[in-house]
Structure formats: structure tokens, C-alpha cells
Automatic annotation (TrEMBL):
<dbReference type="GO" id="GO:0005739">
    <property type="term" value="C:mitochondrion"/>
</dbReference>
<dbReference type="GO" id="GO:0033615">
    <property type="term" value="P:mitochondrial proton-transporting ATP synthase complex assembly"/>
</dbReference>
<keyword id="KW-0482">Metalloprotease</keyword>
<keyword id="KW-0645">Protease</keyword>
<keyword id="KW-0479">Metal-binding</keyword>
<dbReference type="GO" id="GO:0046872">
    <property type="term" value="F:metal ion binding"/>
</dbReference>
<comment type="similarity">
    <text>Belongs to the peptidase M76 family.</text>
</comment>
<dbReference type="GO" id="GO:0034982">
    <property type="term" value="P:mitochondrial protein processing"/>
</dbReference>
<keyword id="KW-0378">Hydrolase</keyword>
<feature type="region of interest" description="Disordered">
    <location>
        <begin position="1"/>
        <end position="28"/>
    </location>
</feature>
<dbReference type="Pfam" id="PF09768">
    <property type="entry name" value="Peptidase_M76"/>
</dbReference>
<feature type="compositionally biased region" description="Low complexity">
    <location>
        <begin position="1"/>
        <end position="11"/>
    </location>
</feature>
<protein>
    <recommendedName>
        <fullName>Mitochondrial inner membrane protease ATP23</fullName>
        <ecNumber>3.4.24.-</ecNumber>
    </recommendedName>
</protein>
<dbReference type="InterPro" id="IPR019165">
    <property type="entry name" value="Peptidase_M76_ATP23"/>
</dbReference>
<dbReference type="GO" id="GO:0004222">
    <property type="term" value="F:metalloendopeptidase activity"/>
</dbReference>
Length: 246
């Protein structure tokens, strides 16, 4: 999840006094999740919702990151449908999107996504979680290492840590900066949706970092730019054609 983006789940943690406090699995960040769906007429009256839907359609139709992930999910037996698997909703002020593993639905925070490039990144980030959910059956609710792995992959492959995005955050670095950004954003995402200590989140990320950072599926490379993503998408399509002829 980007701060930004909330991934799936959390677990329960004990209070300092010794009683157990039930975790809400990050759903507090998405208050519209538990509300009765509004009618199309009512939703159409809200500018945020209309803008969100238009930007989502633009992302799905034109963004190579999203197009590659959609095709990869289809090949894995998890075809994504716009009306079924995406939902534009109002969210907590600190997140832009999330993947609800209980419903296999991506939540897009219509009150926090303000421009197309942000929508592109959020959709890509959450589609990586959805792809992991499809291919690996991630235990979002009980295994923090599973969550950490998907957050590492999402930060690494979605464009969250591109040089331009980091400059926009006033963060600069040289050697190892991309890895540092991925690690930091994965930790922040876990802390946003899980009631665990910072030390627990850091340990989970560090224990799986190398394996998950180097898992580049379905891109086959780290797409540092849209040009890289287009090349990866073309290679993915060619790989599919090659496999079909075997």
C-alpha cells in the first residue's frame, strides 16, 4: 500500500495491559466498505466519483503497467472486470487505495486521487497485490511476511520509487536508493494496515526482502519508467506467443 495505498490485511495484537484488541484488518481506512451501495443516480451526482471512474478507465485503456498486469491475471485464471473488481470510494485521508482480499476488489480513494498519474500508480500498485493474491494465495490476515512480500513487490514494480516520484517527495540518494525506498514504503504500508510494532514490520520486510525484491513477475524487469513498462508488456506478449507455439 502506498501512503497512499493500503493493501490487504492485519492481525490482532495484545494491549499493553494484557487484554486482546481485535484488529480491524485496515478497514478503518475505508469507511465506505461497510455502507450500503448507493444507487447509480446518486453516485453519478458526485464529481469525485465521476472523476475517479474516468481516470480509472483511462488507466485501464492506456497504461502499460496496468495492461500487462491485467493480461497476466487473465492468463492466471483471474480475469479482472471493471465493474466487479474496482470500486471508487471515500477513504481515510492518509490512503489512496487498497486491495480488499475478502472480496477480491480494489478500492480507489476518490477523495484522495487527484490526477491521472496518481491513479495510474495506485491501480498498478493494487493490481500487483491482486496478482499476488491470484497466483500465490497470500495469507494476508495471519502471515505478516506474506503481506511484507507483496508490499515489497508493489513498491518495487509499480513506479512508486521512480526517481521523479522520490524527487517530488524531496528524497534524494545515490547508491541503493531504489532499494531503500522500496523497503521504507513496504514498512509504512504494513504499519498502516496492521497493528504491529515498527520493529515487527521491519523484521518481516528484512527477512523476505531479497527474495521478494528479485521476484519481478509478471514484468520480468523493474519498470523504472513508462517506456520500460511498454517494453516489458511487449516482451510479455511475445513470451505468451512463443509459449503457445511450443
Amino acid at each position: 500500500m502506498e501512503q497512499g495505498e493500503a493493501a490487504s490485511s492485519p492481525a490482532a495484537e495484545e494491549k499493553a495491559a494484557g487484554e486482546e484488541e481485535e484488529d480491524d484488518f485496515g478497514y478503518r481506512l475505508f469507511p465506505d466498505r461497510n455502507k450500503k451501495p448507493q444507487s447509480f443516480l446518486v453516485r453519478s451526482l458526485f464529481t469525485f466519483h465521476n472523476r475517479c471512474q474516468l481516470m480509472l478507465r483511462m488507466t485501464l485503456d492506456t497504461n502499460p503497467y496496468a495492461q500487462l498486469l491485467l493480461e497476466a491475471m487473465k492468463q492466471s485464471g483471474c480475469t479482472v472486470f471493471n465493474d466487479r473488481h474496482f470500486s471508487c470510494e471515500n477513504c481515510d485521508g492518509c490512503v489512496s487505495g487498497g486491495f480488499d482480499s475478502a472480496t477480491s476488489q480494489i478500492v480507489l480513494c476518490q477523495n484522495n486521487i487527484r490526477h491521472q498519474s496518481h491513479m495510474n500508480r495506485v491501480v498498478t500498485h493494487e493490481l500487483i497485490h491482486a496478482f499476488d493474491h491470484c497466483r500465490a494465495h497470500v495469507d494476508w490476515f495471519k502471515n505478516v511476511k506474506h503481506l511484507a512480500c507483496s508490499e515489497i513487490r508493489a513498491a518495487n514494480l509499480s513506479g512508486d520509487c521512480t526517481l521523479m516520484n522520490e524527487i517530488a517527495r524531496f528524497k534524494f540518494g545515490l547508491k541503493g536508493h531504489h532499494q531503500t525506498c522500496v523497503r521504507d514504503r513496504a514498512i509504512r504500508s504494513i504499519l498502516a494496515v496492521r497493528k504491529v510494532s515498527k520493529e515487527t514490520a521491519e523484521k518481516a520486510v528484512d527477512e523476505v526482502f531479497d527474495a521478494c525484491f528479485n521476484d519481478l513477475e509478471p514484468f520480468g524487469r523493474i519498470p523504472h519508467s513508462k517506456k520500460d513498462a511498454k517494453r516489458a508488456y511487449r516482451d510479455f506478449q511475445n513470451r505468451d506467443r512463443y509459449n503457445a507455439n511450443l
